Amino acid sequence: MDLQLDGLRLHVRKEGNGPCVTLLHALGANHAIWDAQAEALAQRFTVLRPDLRGHGRSDAPAGAYSLDMLAGDIVAMWDALHVEQSHVVGISLGGFIAQHLALGWPERIGRLVLADTSSGYPPEAAAQWPARIRTVLEEGLHGLVPATLERWFTAPYRERHAERVCEIGRIIETTPRQGYAGCCHAIAGLATTDRLSQIATPALVLVGEQDVGTPVSMARTLAEGIPGAELRVIEQAAHLSNVEQPAVFNRLLLDFLR
Fold first, then answer.
1. Fold of the CATH domain 2-257
2. Per its UniProt record, what InterPro entries does this chain match (predicted)?
3. Spans of all domains in the chain
């Protein structure tokens, strides 16, 4: 379905019935990376899978976005669908947004799952975003696809599941350049490490053991910073651990949400 939210068209997949779970995807992805999780969750939950602002079939307005703006889109989606409270599962960029939801709208969050994500980047990593924004706006995303897929999946997975990897490569390549760049601006502003202790929501932190983009050390910072948070490392998985190891990811997710 498409929702009109204060001038923004947000595309959302809604499945299942029961307590609400909202799944927030990575930069350059869309709702389809959650297919395996939606299938498992829809047996017990109402599952919402939005294409984030700038991605998929949602609008991609020009200009810089912020994490509060992206989180506000999710709250507006809940309001439009009369959802008072939702569990939130965010991976990578989706995890950044999930943290802002937990900090800014704690009463709207049931349980929080942060997968392959971070609360901040070192200065040398943060300094790379302006160059990436320029490249994307000038040349599009085609040139970013090979390196992104190498970060997102281990080599054995890329070899065994070439068709699925190609599908996700096409999703990256067709992400609107204005939307990707806008979200890069938002990511450059990520800085929640010093605020993690304010998150009172029950939280689970998941990370692929071979994730080089948001490694285990970043996941540990999240788990140690959020009071009572659990940390689980998923073996034989890189950045998109939910795609690479769906059975393990789903088991950990369902056990936590139950």
1. Rossmann fold (3.40.50)
2. AB_hydrolase_1, AB_hydrolase_fold, AB_hydrolase_sf, Epox_hydrolase-like, PcaD/CatD
3. 2-257
Beta pairing partners, 11: 2
CB neighbourhood size of 139 (10 A): 11
Over range 212-232, report the average pLDDT.
97
- Dihedral sign for Cα atoms in the order 134, 140, 142, 145: positive
157: Cα separation from own chain's centroid: 20
Q: State yes or no: pLDDT of 157 exceeds 90.
A: yes
Q: Which two tokens stand for residue 4?
A: 């009109």
Q: H-type helices in 122-176, by residue range?
A: 123-126, 129-139, 145-152, 155-160, 162-173
Sheet holding 8-16, edge to edge: 2-5, 8-16, 46-50, 20-24, 86-91, 109-115, 203-208, 230-234
Say which amino acid occupies 42. Answer: A
